[in-house]
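Support request from a user on the community tier.

User writes: "When I paste my structure tokens into the form, the page sometimes reloads and wipes my input. The last time it worked, I copied everything first. Here is what I submitted, just in case something in the input itself triggers the reload:"
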């Protein structure tokens, strides 16, 4: 009887297996395919939201180092590591110094670049999107990649250039600094060509890309004009910009800035001409969605109710009488 039960059990299991020859090829239910992720405007918008959220914007939430524990745009951080404290007066009053970049600053920016590269690789294969829409999405992704590399080259000089996602982690040599600046310019030129002249709040458009190009190229040109030329030679180009490239970058900065100015799309903020102090103050306050600010070209929105995120300006500057539970009131 026992032998019969064993035979029946084996037979039943064999029968079940024969009915599911693709048992090891079942599609997972907790993962999305590229077509599922990138085929609807809402899904793509959500993906871009994560790309923009990871941008290394040096705002009042930027904290590259946290004492012995590194951080990147997160709380808590060591007091002198907050951008709100990066002034001579506040650093001296705190006895602190300029913050140091943590290793995860490098890692987090490259994680953002990988997400952009994955998007660029997948979007071209997606069905159901017209070519114009695809080109616009690709242009926006390249703007974000240029922003990421702009942060890296400012912090580190020449870094490895990656324009496709790696299939496995592979150490790569550093590119020259000029090669990184050239990649930034190439991505922004492509973005300028295909981005629309206007965009939703917080997203890049043609003139946002022009403005970033003007800023990045001026930064690069300044290294060539005013930096130590011996650095370029001693590092074999890993750090430094040659004069020929610097002149090209300066012209590119001029052309990009001129394109924004002559477009007529933006102008200086002058909502309170009779009170210039108030006008300068509200230049920075009046930047929310739906608010009129012709000088605001690209804004990172701040919405505590939606994100529950805070920033170091409030944490450090609040009067002592209403300091935060962390005890940093009036620290500046």
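"...and here is what came back when it finally went through:"
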């Amino acid at each position: 009887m026992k032998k019969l039960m064993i035979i029946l059990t084996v037979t039943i299991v064999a029968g079940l297996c024969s009915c599911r020859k693709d048992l090891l090829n079942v599609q997972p239910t907790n993962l999305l395919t590229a077509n599922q992720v990138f085929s609807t405007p809402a899904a793509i918008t959500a993906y871009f939201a994560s790309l923009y959220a990871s941008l290394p914007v040096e705002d009042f939430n930027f904290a590259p180092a946290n004492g012995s524990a590194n951080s990147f745009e997160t709380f808590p951080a060591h007091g002198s590591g907050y951008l709100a404290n990066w002034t001579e007066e506040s650093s001296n009053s705190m006895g602190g110094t300029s913050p140091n970049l943590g290793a995860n600053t490098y890692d987090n920016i490259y994680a953002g670049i990988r997400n952009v590269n994955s998007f660029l690789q997948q979007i071209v294969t997606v069905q159901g999107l017209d070519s114009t829409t695809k080109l616009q999405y690709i242009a926006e992704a390249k703007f974000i990649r240029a922003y990421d590399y702009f942060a890296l080259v400012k912090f580190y000089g020449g870094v490895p250039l990656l324009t496709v996602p790696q299939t496995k982690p592979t150490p790569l040599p550093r590119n020259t600094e000029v090669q990184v600046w050239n990649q930034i310019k190439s991505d922004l030129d492509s973005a300028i060509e295909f981005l629309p002249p206007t965009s939703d709040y917080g997203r890049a458009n043609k003139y946002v890309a022009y403005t970033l190009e003007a800023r990045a190229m001026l930064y690069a040109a300044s290294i060539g004009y005013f930096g130590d030329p011996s650095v370029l030679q001693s590092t074999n180009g890993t750090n430094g910009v040659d004069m020929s490239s610097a002149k090209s970058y300066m012209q590119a900065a001029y052309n990009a800035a001129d394109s924004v100015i002559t477009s007529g799309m933006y102008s200086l903020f002058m909502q309170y001409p009779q009170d210039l102090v108030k006008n300068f103050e509200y230049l920075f306050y009046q930047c929310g969605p739906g608010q009129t600010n012709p000088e605001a070209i690209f804004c990172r929105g701040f919405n505590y109710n939606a994100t529950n995120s805070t920033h170091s300006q409030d944490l450090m500057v609040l009067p002592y009488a209403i300091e935060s539970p962390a005890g940093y009131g009036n620290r500046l």
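Agent notes: The reload is a front-end session timeout and is unrelated to the input. The radius of gyration is 26 Å. The chain has 13 helices and no strands. Escalated to web team.
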